[in-house]
Write a structure and sequence with these properties.
binds nicotinamide-adenine-dinucleotide; 2 domains; globular; Aldehyde Dehydrogenase, Chain A, domain 1; 15 helices; 21 strands; 5-stranded parallel beta sheet; Aldehyde Dehydrogenase, Chain A, domain 2; single chain; 7-stranded mixed beta sheet; alpha/beta
Length: 494
């Protein structure tokens, strides 16, 4: 692992790609507009990024459709697509440190998380999905003997991907790997708060041999470039990761345009339930701290609601505070630092608003409090609030910051009811040594994912996604391919 001095030196030498990548080349936005990419740890300008809008999106969709129809990629043998994507995964691995550095500088995530999670997981997602694509078969239906019923899979066409800033490279990869492997063309609109790693990735895709126009990356704001992509009449599907509010807007845009499919991975307010029969309180407390403080709490599955059985509440909270103390915000380029700055001032202000609302609504600040960073950088204060109840704003709404709301419960039924009392249903974490209870509670919780005696475990082999206001469809695993392929039924009269 590199030292702080080495990462700092590398950061000084790095150069950014900041123009739109359309049809195999970098282009400024047609309007000439740009927006600044700011390092949230130093508040310094990294680079001015092309601020694209409808004409740029149109150009990208035209390129994507042209190559899709030509068939260079869409009708390439699956083994050929696998070969190119595996080469791309190798290139990404060769540039792993560069990608780790780009996202750390662009959005503030610690370099240790980038090198341990984001970059290796992105490589794994790409490699695993590429490996699968020449092993996916069609089906023959059990029709009557006078017919042959073939069920075949085909790429959807032009996929519009709209992604968030909290895992800039990784969230994009969860869309790009299955969409490209399945033979689609993609127009990716990364978050305006962190576009740089996706732009650099597009260049590597060209180097790996992806035909021009198959992958386009168009940076810009949501209400301009994002909306244009979502309303576009020649985009066949949208793959979205972001907030529940914007997800709803995309569904409306689809309804107002061509009924494109809308696949959503949205927000969360994930509960952690700790039962008194959990023997290893230390492990549970460490897990709970990691669940809310990892990546500054800017995690869709952040365990932001903690329900502890009342009989162990006091010792558990004491242990939790000890682990919380290990998350001291600092320079994200320092490999020893476990928490960086929030992505921008607006996100830090949002966190403060929620902490203040918790105080106003009767919560007790058990650890941390309002964030008042001295000097440069949008550094948050890791915070634990006790004496919370379900009506409080900090319990109901996604904060997307390092703020944990804690409440007690007496019975298993009560814990399940509290966990399910949310518009969201993304993840949940259950801590118990009772096997029957683990299965019972995991089955009863309304969420796409449940971790028993853990939190956040995941690799490409398991689907990721939620229910209720947290979305539809799934990223990762073979199930991700369902979003990016159409089934066709062909009847052959014999
Ligand atoms: P956001 O919804 O504000 O933005 C997401 C993307 O949508 C960005 O690229 C943005 O530019 C774009 N966008 C915004 N308005 C748009 C519009 N009107 N039309 C089209 N596009 C528009 O979300 P964010 O702040 O970037 O990310 C945080 C959210 O993402 C949180 O709610 C978090 O829970 C969620 N998230 C979910 C998952 C998951 O897998 N479920 C993973 C990561 C993040």
């Amino acid at each position: 692992m590199r030292t702080l001095t080495e990462w700092t030196a590398l950061a000084q030498d790095i150069s950014f790609r900041a123009q739109a990548w359309i049809d195999g080349e970098f282009r400024p936005s047609i309007s000439g507009d740009t927006f600044p990419a700011i390092n949230p740890a130093t508040e310094e300008l990294l680079v001015d990024v092309a601020s694209c809008d409808t004409p740029d999106i149109d150009a990208a969709v035209v390129a994507a459709r042209r190559v899709f129809k030509a068939g260079d990629w869409s009708r390439a043998a699956p083994a050929e697509r696998k070969r190119v994507l595996l080469k791309l995964a190798d290139l990404l691995e060769q540039h792993a440190d560069e990608f780790a550095l780009i996202d750390t500088l662009d959005m503030g995530k610690t370099i240790s998380e980038m090198t341990a999670i984001d970059v290796p997981d992105a490589i794994d997602c790409l490699r695993w999905t590429a490996e699968c694509i020449d092993k996916v078969y069609g089906e023959i239906a059990p029709t009557k003997p006078s017919t042959l019923g073939l069920i075949t899979r085909h790429p959807v066409g032009v996929v519009g991907a709209i992604t968030p800033w909290n895992y800039p490279l990784l969230m994009a990869m969860w869309k790009l790997a299955p969409a490209l492997a399945a033979g689609n063309s993609v127009v990716l609109k990364p978050s305006e708060k962190a576009s740089l790693s996706c732009l650099r990735f597009a260049e590597l895709a060209r180097d790996a041999g992806l035909p021009n126009g198959v992958l386009n990356v168009v940076p810009g704001f949501g209400h301009t470039a994002g909306k244009a992509l979502a309303l576009h009449m020649d985009v066949d599907a949208l793959a979205f990761t972001g907030s529940t509010r914007v997800a709803g807007m995309l569904m409306q845009y689809a309804g107002q345009s061509n009924l494109k499919r809308v696949w959503i991975e949205a927000g969360g307010k994930s509960p952690l339930i700790v039962f008194e029969d959990c023997q290893n309180i230390e492990a549970a407390a460490r897990g709970a701290a990691g669940a809310i403080f990892t990546n500054q709490g800017e995690v869709c599955i952040a365990g932001s609601r903690l329900y502890v059985q009342n009989s162990i509440r006091e010792p558990f909270i004491e242990a939790l505070k000890r682990f919380a103390g290990k998350y001291q915000p600092g320079n994200p380029l320092d490999p020893k630092v476990r928490m960086g700055p929030m992505v921008d001032k607006a996100q830090l202000d949002t966190v403060n608003r929620y902490v203040q609302s918790a105080i106003d609504e009767g919560g007790r600040i058990e650890h941390g409090g309002l964030s008042m960073p001295e000097g440069k950088g949008f550094f948050p204060t890791p915070t634990i609030i006790t004496e919370t109840h379900q009506a409080m704003t900090c319990v109901r709404e996604e904060i997307f910051g390092p703020v944990l709301a804690v409440a007690g419960f007496d019975t298993e039924e009560e814990a399940i009811a509290l966990a399910n009392d949310s518009i969201y249903g993304l993840g949940a974490s259950v801590w118990t040594d009772n096997l029957s209870r683990a299965h019972r509670v995991a089955g009863a919780i309304e969420s796409g994912m449940v971790w028993v005696n853990g939190w956040g475990e995941g690799d490409t082999t398991m689907p990721f996604g939620g229910v209720k206001g947290s979305g539809n469809g799934r990223d990762k695993s073979l199930h991700a391919l369902d979003k990016y392929s159409e089934l066709k039924s062909v009847w052959i009269s014999l």
